[in-house]
Structures are given as C-alpha cells and as structure tokens.
C-alpha cells in the first residue's frame, strides 16, 4: 500500500556506486547515457534497468512501487529529438522529441493532422511538454489493479498467482477494460492516444539494438496482445531502444479525424477512441485506415471495417455496416458492454468527420 | 467596506507561497510518520511482524495495536482506526505506523511491516445488501398527513429511484499534521474546519486536558466536510511524537485519502410525487436507502430539502440503512441537500413534464407560505424571485418544452432548472478586538478561533471590522485558526460567515460603546472607535464579547435558497455532455463580499456539475477496495467541460436570522445543481438518467 519515494544516486556511465550505504530504502543506480550505443549496451547487461526519458509514467509507477528498476538509464543527453522530412516523402520523429513539439510541427500539422489531433487529445499541456515520442509508445496501462500493489495483477507480478487467473479486473471493476483480444490473464487496455494515430498511419518504429544495428518494427507488430505474458507489452528485445518513429508518405491529410470519447472533456483516458483516415476519389473510398483505442491491450486496427469499405461509397449505411462488422468480434466484460455500441458509433462518426475534413 | 468586492487580503501570501499550511510550519528536529493500511476489508490481525522494519536504518518506532499507547476510542475522533485493537472493519484501515528520521526511511520501512490476517467475509456489495437495510437509528421517519394513501389514490404521479455513488471530498490539501510536545502540552499544526472541535476531540482521545492541546490552522487547503470532524491521522501524529520524543510530521497520500477521512455514502432515493391536473402537489415521499460503516451509523439527510421546499398536505421522509465494511461516511459538500435535491428536483421535473406544465411554473404553484415542516414563517424565502429573475437572465422562454427538439449540428441542446436550499444558523462564537494608536493612525486586531477553508474568511472579517471601527481595511489584522484565540464556531454547515461576521461586528460595536463611556462625553453623532482613540488620546484599548443568534431567530425558519439553470450540449453520437452555460441565482441574505461570494458559488456549482457528470468512487464489490484512488481516476470537471458561468444574488434584508442579515453560501452553491444538469440532459435528449454520474455510456 505504501508509496515509495526514491533517492537518486548519481554516477557517470559505467561507474558503479556503493549500494551498501543505501539499505534503508530501495536503491537504484542512475546512469546517464551519452549515445544510443552506450544506452543499449548498458540496458542489455542489466535486464532490470529501465530507460528514463520524460519520466511522466515511469516515475509515477516507481512512486507507486509498481515499477522497481534497479537502474535508470537517462536518455536525455542523446540527440534524438529532431523531426526530419524523409526523401521518400515521409517524416521521421526523433524518439526523444517532446509530444508537444511533434503535435505542433508544421509538417505534422500539414501532412498528418490525425497525429496532431491524437497527441493533443492526450494528457495535459504540462505532461505533453515532458513526455517523449518514444516514451509515449511504452506507456503502461492505467488499470487500477495494476496500479495498486495489494491487488492481484499478472502484468505487475507475472507468475505470482499461479493457478488462479490473477487478474483483479477480469471479474472486478472492468468498465474501462478491453473488449478485443484480452486473455484470462489480463483484460487491461493500452492508454496512448498518439499510438492510435500512428497505428492508423502505418508508422514504423526504428530501433537501435545492443549489437549496434538498427532494425525496423512495423507498427502493427510493435505492441502485443496479453496472452499468457501480459507483462510483455511490446516486441522490443532486451536492451533495444526506440530511436525514431517514421511516418510513411500518406494521402490522408484531407480526410482524417481523431475521435476520443471519455468521461470528461480533457485529462481523462479514452473509453473508446477512433483514428480514421480516408483517401477518396470523388465519393469512392480508395484507401481507409481505422484504429481504435481504449478497447484492447494494443492499438486495435479495425481491419474488418477497413476491408469492408475499400472501393465503396462514403455513405452512412456503408459506415454502419463496416462498424458492425468490426464490433461483431467484440467480447465485452461485465461492466463494459457499452463499449460495443459506443465503438460502433465512434467508428461511424469518426469516418463521417473524416469525410467532412474534421468539420462538424 | 462590507458589500464591496475586495480581493482576498491573504491572496498575495497564497500565490507567492508564503501562507504556511499545516506541514509548511517550520520546525526543527522533526521526524516523519507513515501509516500502514490494511489490505482486507474485514477480519482480524493475527500477527504483526515488524522485525525487519525495526532493523531498517533511521526507524525510530513501529507502532501497531500490539504496542500502541492506550487511547480513548470514544473521544470524538471519527472513523476509529486508532490502533487499539486487532479488528479490521474496512479496506485500507490504518493498522500500523512507522516513525523514522526521514520520510523516505519511514515510507520504505512501512512497506516492510508484515501483517497476517484472519479474514472474514466483507460486507461490501451494496447492490446485494440494500434489501437488508433497516430503519435508521438517528433519523426517525417524519410524516405529515398520509402520503401513502394519497399516492395510492392519485392518478397523476411519479415514483422513481435516483441513485448517487460514493463520493470523496478530495480537497487539494490532503490531511496532514505536525505534532510537538512540550512536557504535557501538545501543539498540533493541522487543518481543522472546527478549531475548538479538533482541540477537544484530540484531547479527549489522548486522555489529556483540552487546555493542554493547541490547534494551529491558519490556512486550510479545502476540506468539504472531511476536516470538520477529525480522524485518526491527527491523534496518531501526536502518538508518534510522544513515542519518538520529538516533533513528528504525518501526511496522508492522495491514495490514503479514500479510506482515512470519511466519504459520502451511496444513496438510493425513491421519490414519489402526486399532483392534481393543475399542478398542485398532493403528496411527496422521499425514502432513502443507504449504507453506513459496519459499527457506526452516519446517514446524510437526503430528505431535508423535501421537508420544506414545497407545499403539500401529505409528506413522508424516511431512511433505511445497512452496515457495510467501509470507513464511516461523513458530511460532504452540502450533506444530504446536494444529493437529496438531485432526487427531489429530478422528480419535480419528471412530474412537471407529465403534467405538461413548465417546471418553473410548477414550482411556483407549490410555493409554501410557511415552512411546511414546522409551520414557522420564513425569515426570507427567495425561491420565487430566484426562479423568475433567473428565467429572465437565462432566456428560459427560448427553451423547447418538449425534449429532443433543439438540434445544433452534432449536438442535442437542452435546458434545465432546479432549486435548492440550505439552513442558516448563527452559532455561538466569541472574539477579541485590540485597538492600538500611533499618532493619528489607529489599527485593530480581531481575534477568534475561526477557520478559513480558503473561501475568504480573513477578508470578510477585515471588511466587517473596518466598517464597525471606522478604520481602513489595510489597518485591520485578522487572527484566526488558533485554539488559543477566543472559541468560535466551525467553518462547517454554512455557519462560518454569519457566526464570525456577527461576533466581530459585536465586539467592535462593544469597544466603540466602551470608548464612548470612557470619554465621559455626549455626542450628537456617534463617533467611530478610531475617532475616539485619537480624540481621547488612548494608546491601547481592548474588548471581548460572546455572541449568539438573536432570540427572534427561533421564531423563524431561516434558509438560503437558490435556482439553478443549466444549458447542456449532448453529443448525439458519443453521449458526451458539456455544460455550455450555467446560472445560479441565490438569495442568501446580505452578501459581505460579492467577489469571494461569487467564487464560492461557482465552486459549489462546479462540484455540483461534477456530481452530475463525472464524480464516482468505484469500489470492488468483492474486496471493498476503491479502484478510483487518485485525481486521475476521480474525475472533477475540467475547464473544457463547462462554458460560461454566471452568478446572481437576490438582495435580501433578513435581520430576523441574525443582526447583520448574513446567511451562508458555503453549501447552497452545490444544492440543486446536479438536478438542473440532469433535467437539461432530459430536455436535450429525452433520456432521463436517474443514476449519477451521467457518463457517456448512459446516453448512448
């Protein structure tokens, strides 16, 4: 139950500090990385280390005693904050760029307004000023059972609840929880708004590996469903560091919309959110992307709805049929049945808003 | 000065961080205490293992029921949890405390104390327990005429159940205290809405004399009732300081606030109303089913508004209660009236709709000439004026009488009205005034053990004293928030402003009279105290007085009244609600400072909108733990949720209640608000939501 406050011990990269004097509280080592190579190397050597960027989620979780890293690798000295136009016509967002800067960059506003809307729908101005693009991808669920250490949670303490489900929310208060892709081990939802837009835009996560390589992970493959290992939320390997998020060239700028439905108009996580993007030829749908937030353990691409809409006219009826096709797959829990109807309405309304160019 | 919109005299101190709240008080050699909370809702502690925590560097003491000093559990501290027994009565009950050199050491050691439990099956599922509710021990049924018979005979009626969830006070400043012993004398720097009440309950519980306890509470970061009665954290700070033999600080975390300092209980209120076709109320029944703590009853008076708002020959008010393993409920933001008016005023709206009568007109047709609950005349009752002037200012005539008629783009727009009331009582208080002259400049200090919750008490008392003494307001020093000062009423139940302003006025008038007498002169025009200090060359003068309500107050029924108007925009597809406009019209006697009064009414309105749309402390029905524990989960409306807010005060001259004609505004600002919003949602969408909060899922 108790909150834990940490004292930070400074050290230079690679230099150890004497932990014996700190046994009166939970010690952790603080390391300041100088470049991506050193950051990934240190992280690969210590599986209990965590990268520290904006800290808007990690520090909270450490205070709650949910995250207990024994080392923080501070990334803020790394030069990974640039936003660059790519020769292919796309855009690269540095992993350490602040959310506020990404949302307001002229090229983002002009070419990817869906991303601007999604970022600005999340958190508060102060948090967006601190939070980084890479860190946003790694936000952890706000499930209250995950956050309270006296409650059972397979994500927080994998393996501890052998035999029983170990998920407090599965049969507890699960109004805010998943309707797609959940498992008996975990019904939590992924909280990021930014990632919903990135999912719809088919972004690519650029990763630095401990052996000095770079690799690309497609957005669809980045986050995971809970299955039997809800503690593993992404397909990042130990030591791997997000260095950039790439947005491919897109023709969605004219017709996209991020709809976030929540219990209050700002500073609340989504009950359901929908990022919708259309490329139209007249009133015919040439390309469509629909991603949903607040419904699953990862950004949920509404592929069934997308498949239904390709080549069709932008009519209310088509939107409704597409939404119904997607939501037919939903498996709601005791307290979140409303998300099925809300999801349908949200898909339809987000598509209509996208057709109207975001004007209500 | 009284009646002018003076900015808070303590405003600069607050915005520059110079106002010392309880934990800010500078203190040397301080140690830190941290509470350990139970992780079950019912049972017994079998074993405490504190060996590891005790070995931790810096730890000064680990205290549980096994080694706690003996305290008086009937000393007036609310909610138990005083470490006196192994019994566990609710989830998150305080079961231990660690004192250490530093806060970090204490909080770490607290995580190492191990408790073994013998678990019992917790009574925490209100849905399944509600049917077992029994008549309240504290609140008897109140009947006039025969409401049941009238309802049975009536053809035009409504009978509906309105539910409100558990809510928490969540003031910005969580409860915290510093305790310092000097021999037998204890000083507690802590937030207390009732300074002398905190003094007495701390003393009794600690088995020491009240005069040996001093409460210092110059600034309070909000309380909303949770700092009225005091809770275990206050005396446990004193216990920790005693054991550690040095001053100790103890602060609750935001998470600990949900099970440490009370809550507003869940209510299921059945409203039955019958009327004639021309809109005359024939029966009103308000039957509340609720829960309390497992071993003690507290029931908020949800039927209070229903007792006196409308003229009806048949009335029934009742309360049924079931014990539950939760912390003791307590007074919360307009206790009973805010929640009760949601039920009553929603019911009135439903019946008006059924009768096809405008809801304002329906209320006006049932205005009681006297207080129906006791037959006394009103000292003043502004309801009709609030409704009429409010309707004009709000543009009520543009409202569509039928729901779902006002479509604006993707929104349904609706308008709602609801009334509220809160009693006005001057409580006994005493005060000193100290006058001091240097040359021709006279300054004054007024002293009383009043409390300022952050609402402007310092300012209105400076204004009152300035007028009464003839001294500029910047030459008045207001000293409050200290039990060493003359005893005064609490800043609770909307009694603060009227009790404090009257006693300050009285003591200033008394000083003036005494100065006139001392001069031995006769005056054509009554001179001010300031003039007398100068003309009679007096350097120092002081006076004291004790005041209470005038005898006439008993002959009248005294209340503040309001009418609330809400315009909501409900998103057609998502069910999200925005309160685009809100107007509160209030008759609350003389307004001492329209600026601070307006802020206070707006504050109440925002809380009322929160009650309507966002606030709920969700509890796991299996284990009794709250799953909404932080301000990220416990939603209070944000700026984007509310548009324009307007406040109108009706001019009232109510000297029957008290000499200055002041009535409270501390609570009335939230009363009737949730119903106005819910009624507007009905007008917008045609959906009647009877279960708060009105979240999007209830409107799709």
SSE order and pairing:
The complex is a heterodimer of chains A (360) and B (700).
Chain A (H helix, E strand, L loop, with lengths): L8 E3 L17 E4 L3 H10 L3 E4 L5 H6 L7 E4 L8 E3 L5 E4 L4 H6 L1 H6 L1 H8 L4 H6 L2 H5 L6 H4 L46 H7 L3 E5 L5 E5 H4 L18 E7 L8 E6 L10 E10 L2 E10 L6 E2 L1 H7 L6 H12 L10 H18 L5
Parallel strand pairs in A: 1-2, 2-4, 3-4
Antiparallel strand pairs in A: 5-6, 6-9, 7-8, 7-9, 10-11, 11-12, 12-13
Helix pairs in contact in A: 5-9, 11-12, 12-13
Chain B lengths: L10 H5 L15 E7 L5 E7 L1 H5 L3 E6 L22 E2 L5 E7 L2 H8 L3 E6 L6 H4 L4 E2 L6 E3 L2 H7 L3 E8 L11 E7 L2 E6 L4 H11 L7 E4 L15 H13 L3 E4 L15 E9 L5 E12 L11 H5 L5 E10 L13 H19 L3 H6 L18 H12 L12 E2 L2 E13 L5 E10 L2 E7 L9 H13 L6 E4 L16 H24 L9 H7 L4 E8 L11 E13 L5 E11 L6 H20 L28 E8 L23 H13 L15
Helix pairs in contact in B: 9-16, 12-13, 15-16
Explain this structure to me?
- The complex is a heterodimer of chains A (360) and B (700).
- With 360 residues, chain A is of the alpha+beta class.
- Among the domains of chain A are: 9-74, Uridine Diphospho-n-acetylenolpyruvylglucosamine Reductase, domain 2 (2-Layer Sandwich); 256-355, CO dehydrogenase flavoprotein, C-terminal domain (Enolase-like, domain 1, 2-Layer Sandwich), CATH 3.30.390.
- Helix content of chain A is 28%, strand content 19%.
- Chain A has 13 helices and 13 strands.
- Chain A has helices at 36-45, 58-63, 99-104, 106-111, 113-120, 125-130, 133-137, 144-147, 194-200, 219-222, 303-309, 316-327, 338-355; strands at 9-11, 29-32, 49-52, 71-74, 83-85, 91-94, 204-208, 214-218, 241-247, 256-261, 272-281, 284-293, 300-301.
- In chain A, helix 2 (58-63) links the parallel strand 3 (49-52) and strand 4.
- In chain A, helix 5 (113-120) runs antiparallel to helix 9 (194-200), helix 11 packs antiparallel against helix 12 (316-327) and helix 12 (316-327) runs antiparallel to helix 13 (338-355).
- The termini of chain A are far apart.
- The model of chain A is unreliable at 1-22 (pLDDT under 50).
- With 700 residues, chain B is α+β, with helices and mostly antiparallel strands.
- In chain B, 25% of the residues lie in helices and 25% in strands.
- A 7-stranded mixed beta sheet of chain B has the order 3-5-1-13-10-11-12. In chain B, strands 7, 8, 9, 14, 15 and 16 form a 6-stranded mixed beta sheet that branches. Chain B has a 5-stranded mixed beta sheet with strand order 17-18-23-24-25, sandwiched between helices.
- The mean pLDDT of chain B is 97.
- Classes of the chains: A alpha+beta (360), B alpha+beta (700).
- At the A-B interface, helix 8 and helix 13 of A face strand 1 and helix 3 of B.
- Chain A: InterPro entries: CO_DH_flav_C, CO_DH_flav_C_dom_sf, Diverse_Substr_Oxidored, FAD-bd_PCMH, FAD-bd_PCMH-like_sf, FAD-bd_PCMH_sub1, FAD-bd_PCMH_sub2, Mopterin_DH_FAD-bd.
- Chain A: It holds the Pfam family FAD_binding_5.
- Chain A: One of its GO terms (molecular function) is oxidoreductase activity.
């Amino acid at each position: 139950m108790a909150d834990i406050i940490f004292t930070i011990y400074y050290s230079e990269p690679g230099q150890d500090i004497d932990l014996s004097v700190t046994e009166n509280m939970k010690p952790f080592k603080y390391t300041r990385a100088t470049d991506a190579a050193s950051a990934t190397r240190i992280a690969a050597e210590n599986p209990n280390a965590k990268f520290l960027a904006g800290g808007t989620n990690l520090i909270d979780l450490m205070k709650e005693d949910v995250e207990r890293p024994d080392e923080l690798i501070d990334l803020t000295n790394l030069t990974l904050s640039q936003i660059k136009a790519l020769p292919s016509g796309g855009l690269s967002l540095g992993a350490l760029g602040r959310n506020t800067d990404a949302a307001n960059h002229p090229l983002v506003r002009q070419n990817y307004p869906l991303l601007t809307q999604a970022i600005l729908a999340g958190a508060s101005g102060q948090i967006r000023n601190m939070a980084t693009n890479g860190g946003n991808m790694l936000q952890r669920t706000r499930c209250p059972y995950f956050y309270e250490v006296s409650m059972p949670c397979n994500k927080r303490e994998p393996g501890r609840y052998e035999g029983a489900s170990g998920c407090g929310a599965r049969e507890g208060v699960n109004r805010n929880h998943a309707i797609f892709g959940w498992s008996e081990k975990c019904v939590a939802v992924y909280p990021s708004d930014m990632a919903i837009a990135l999912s719809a835009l088919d972004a690519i996560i650029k990763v630095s590996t401990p052996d000095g390589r770079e690799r690309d992970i497609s957005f669809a493959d980045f986050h995971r469903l809970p299955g039997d290992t809800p503690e593993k939320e992404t397909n990042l390997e130990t030591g791997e560091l997000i260095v950039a998020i790439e947005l491919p060239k897109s023709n969605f700028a004219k017709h996209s919309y991020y709809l976030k439905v929540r219990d209050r108009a700002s500073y609340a996580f989504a009950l359901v959110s929908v990022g919708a993007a259309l490329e139209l030829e007249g009133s015919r749908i040439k390309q469509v992307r629909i991603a949903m937030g607040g419904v699953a353990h990862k950004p949920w691409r509404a592929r069934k709805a997308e498949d239904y809409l390709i080549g069709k006219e932008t009519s209310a009826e088509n939107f409704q049929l597409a939404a119904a096709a997607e939501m037919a797959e939903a498996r709601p829990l005791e307290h979140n049945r409303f998300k099925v109807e809300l999801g349908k309405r949200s898909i339809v309304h987000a598509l209509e808003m996208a057709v109207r160019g975001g004007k209500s | 000065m009284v009646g002018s919109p003076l900015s808070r005299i303590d405003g600069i101190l607050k915005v520059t961080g110079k106002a010392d709240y309880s934990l800010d008080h500078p203190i040397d050699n301080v140690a830190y205490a941290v509470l350990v909370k139970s992780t079950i809702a019912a049972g017994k502690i079998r074993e405490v293992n504190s060996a590891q925590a005790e070995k931790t560097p810096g730890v000064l003491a680990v205290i549980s029921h096994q080694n706690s000093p003996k305290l008086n559990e009937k000393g007036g501290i609310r909610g138990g949890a005083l470490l006196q027994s192994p019994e566990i009565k609710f989830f998150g009950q305080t079961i231990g405390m660690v004192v250490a050199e530093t806060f970090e050491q204490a909080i770490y050691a607290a995580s190492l104390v191990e408790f073994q439990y013998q678990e019992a099956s917790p009574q925490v599922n209100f849905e399944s327990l509600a049917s077992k509710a029994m008549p309240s021990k504290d609140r008897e049924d109140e009947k006039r005429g025969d409401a049941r018979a009238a309802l049975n005979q009536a053809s035009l009626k409504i009978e509906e159940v309105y539910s409100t969830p558990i809510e928490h006070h969540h003031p910005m400043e969580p409860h915290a205290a510093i305790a310092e012993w000097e021999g037998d004398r204890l000083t507690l720097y802590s937030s207390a809405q009732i300074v002398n009440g905190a003094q007495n309950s701390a003393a009794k519980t600690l088995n020491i004399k009240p005069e040996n306890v001093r409460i210092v509470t110059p600034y309070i970061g909000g309380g909303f009732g949770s700092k009225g009665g005091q809770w275990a954290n206050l005396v446990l700070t004193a216990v920790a300081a005693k054991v550690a033999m040095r001053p100790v600080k103890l602060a609750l975390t935001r998470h600990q606030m949900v099970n440490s300092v009370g809550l507003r209980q869940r209510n299921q209120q059945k409203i039955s109303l019958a009327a004639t076709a021309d809109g005359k109320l024939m029966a009103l029944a308000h039957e509340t089913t609720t829960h309390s703590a497992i071993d003690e009853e507290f029931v908020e008076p949800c039927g209070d508004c229903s007792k006196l708002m409308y003229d009806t020959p048949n009335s029934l008010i009742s309360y049924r209660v079931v014990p539950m393993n939760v912390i003791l409920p307590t007074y919360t933001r307009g206790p009973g009236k805010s929640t009760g008016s949601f039920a009553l005023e929603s019911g009135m709206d439903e019946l008006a709709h059924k009768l096809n009568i405008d809801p304002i007109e329906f209320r006006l047709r049932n205005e009681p000439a006297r207080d129906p609950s006791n037959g006394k005349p009103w000292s003043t009752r502004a309801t009709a004026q609030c409704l009429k002037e409010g309707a004009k200012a709000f543009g009520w005539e543009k409202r569509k009488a039928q729901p779902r008629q006002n479509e604006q783009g993707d929104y349904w727009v609706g308008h709602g009205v609801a009334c509220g009331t809160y009693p006005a009582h001057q409580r006994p208080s005493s005060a000193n005034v100290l006058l001091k002259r240097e040359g021709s400049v006279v300054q004054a200090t007024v002293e009383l053990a009043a409390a300022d919750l952050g609402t402007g008490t310092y300012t209105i008392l400076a204004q009152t004293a300035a007028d009464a003494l003839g001294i500029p307001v910047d030459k008045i020093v207001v000293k409050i928030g200290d039990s060493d000062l003359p005893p005064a009423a609490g800043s609770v139940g909307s009694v603060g402003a009227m009790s404090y302003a009257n006693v300050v006025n009285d003591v200033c008038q008394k000083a003036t009279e005494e100065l006139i007498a001392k001069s031995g002169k006769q005056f054509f025009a009554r001179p001010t105290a300031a003039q007398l200090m100068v003309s009679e060359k007096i350097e120092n003068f002081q006076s004291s007085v004790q005041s209470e309500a005038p005898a006439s107050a008993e002959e009248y029924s005294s209340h503040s009244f309001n009418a609330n108007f809400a315009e909501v925009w409900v998103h057609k597809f998502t069910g999200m609600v925005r309160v685009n406009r809100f107007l509160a019209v209030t008759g609350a006697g003389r307004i001492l400072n329209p600026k601070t009064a307006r802020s206070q009414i707006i504050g109440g309105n925002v809380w009322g909108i929160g009650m309507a749309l966002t606030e709920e402390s969700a509890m796991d029905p299996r284990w009794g733990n709250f799953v909404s524990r932080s301000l990220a989960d416990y939603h209070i409306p944000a700026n984007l949720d509310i548009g324009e807010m307007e406040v109108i005060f009706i001019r009232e001259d109510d000297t029957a209640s008290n000499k200055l004609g002041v009535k409270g505004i501390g609570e009335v600002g939230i009363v009737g608000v949730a119903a106005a919003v819910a009624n507007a949602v009905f007008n917008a969408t045609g959906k009647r939501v009877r279960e708060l909060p009105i979240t999007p899922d209830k409107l799709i």
